[in-house]
Amino acid sequence: MKRAKVVETDDINKNGEDEKHPNFLIPKLCSWMYDLKWATGTGGGMSVKHGDFIYMAPSGVQKEMIKPGEIFKCNASGEVLENPASLKLTECAPLFMNAYSIRNAGAVLHSHSKDAVLASLIFKGKEFRISHQEMLKGIKKGSSNEPHKYIDTLIVPIVENVLYEKDLTRRMKKAMELYPESNAVLVRRHGVYIWGKNWQQAKTQAECYHYLFKLAVKLKQLGIEPDQAPAGENGIA
Ligand SMILES: CSCCC(=O)C(=O)COP(=O)(O)O
Ligand SMILES: [Zn+2]
C-alpha cells in the first residue's frame, strides 16, 4: 500500500501553502543558483520530482525571479500537464528527463558556472578527473548510497556542446550509460547537469562537484595534475 506523504506543519506558510512543494522549492533553488552565478543571463535551471509528477522551471526567464505560479507540472514521461502562466517549458526538459528515466533521480539541475566551463576545458578528452580530495566524500557512486573515498578518482564524462540545448539529449544519455558511477555530465564550453535521489542530495552533490571543478582548474594553473596521487608530501603522519 502506498503511504501518504506527510506534510510537516512547519512547512505550511500563513497562506496554507506547502513550502516544500516544488512550486516553492524550484524558485528558491533557482535563486540560490543565481546567487552562486550558476544561473545568470537566464541560463541554467532546476527540476524536482514530487510524487508521480515532475516539476520544471520555465525557459528564458530571470531565473532568480521565478514565481510559484510559473512552474510547469509534467507527468512521469515529461508531458506537460499544467503551464499556469502560459510560459515556454525549459529547453533543458529532455535532459532533465534523462536523469529521471535513466537514474531514477528525484531532482536535477543545470548550471552555467564558469568553474564547470573551465573544468570542461582543462581536460581535452572525454573525462574530467580528480582524486585525493576530502570533498570527494560528498558525492555518491551513481544511484548507490556508497560515497567516493578520499583516494578514489572521481570521473565526470564530458560531452561536446551543440547549437541547441535539446540536441544534447542523445549525448548526455550516451555519457550516462558509459559512466554509471557519475552523477554529473559536463557539457564543454557550456556547463554541467547534476542530479540526486532528492533535491537535497542534488544540491549537496552540486556544491561538491563545483568545489572540485574550481579546485582542479587552480591545480592545473599551479602545474599539479588534479588526478595525480600525492608524492613527496611530508606532513605529520
Ligand atoms: C544564455 S542561456 C542559453 C540557453 C541555455 O543554455 C539554457 O540553459 C537555457 O535554459 P532555459 O531553461 O532558459 O530554456
Ligand atoms: Zn544551458
TrEMBL record:
| Classification via HAMAP family | Salvage_MtnB_euk
Q: Which residues bind Zn(2+)?
A: H110, H112, H190
Return the InterPro entries for the record: Aldolase_II/adducin_N (IPR001303), Aldolase_II/adducin_N_sf (IPR036409), MethylthioRu-1-P_deHdtase_MtnB (IPR017714), Salvage_MtnB_euk (IPR027514)
Q: Which reaction equation describes what this protein catalyses?
A: 5-(methylsulfanyl)-D-ribulose 1-phosphate = 5-methylsulfanyl-2,3-dioxopentyl phosphate + H2O
Query: Catalytic residues?
Result: E134
| Family from the record | Belongs to the aldolase class II family. MtnB subfamily.
What is the role of the protein in this entry?
A: Catalyzes the dehydration of methylthioribulose-1-phosphate (MTRu-1-P) into 2,3-diketo-5-methylthiopentyl-1-phosphate (DK-MTP-1-P). Functions in the methionine salvage pathway, which plays a key role in cancer, apoptosis, microbial proliferation and inflammation. May inhibit the CASP1-related inflammatory response (pyroptosis), the CASP9-dependent apoptotic pathway and the cytochrome c-dependent and APAF1-mediated cell death.
List the lineage, top down: Eukaryota, Metazoa, Chordata, Tunicata, Ascidiacea
Specify the species.
Ciona intestinalis (Transparent sea squirt)
Chief subcellular location equals cytoplasm
| Biological processes annotated in GO | L-methionine salvage from methylthioadenosine
Q: GO terms for molecular function, please?
A: methylthioribulose 1-phosphate dehydratase activity; zinc ion binding
Domain Class II aldolase/adducin N-terminal, by residue range, is 24-217
GO terms for cellular component: cytoplasm
Q: Where in the cell is it found?
A: Cytoplasm
Q: Which cofactor does it need?
A: Zn(2+)
Identify the Pfam families for this entry. Aldolase_II
User: Superkingdom of the source?
Assistant: Eukaryota
UniProt-recorded name of the protein:
Probable methylthioribulose-1-phosphate dehydratase
| Residues involved in substrate binding | C92
Q: How is the cofactor bound?
A: Binds 1 zinc ion per subunit.
E.C. code: 4.2.1.109
Keywords tagged on the record: Amino-acid biosynthesis, Cytoplasm, Lyase, Metal-binding, Methionine biosynthesis, Zinc
User: Pathway listed for it?
Assistant: Amino-acid biosynthesis; L-methionine biosynthesis via salvage pathway; L-methionine from S-methyl-5-thio-alpha-D-ribose 1-phosphate: step 2/6
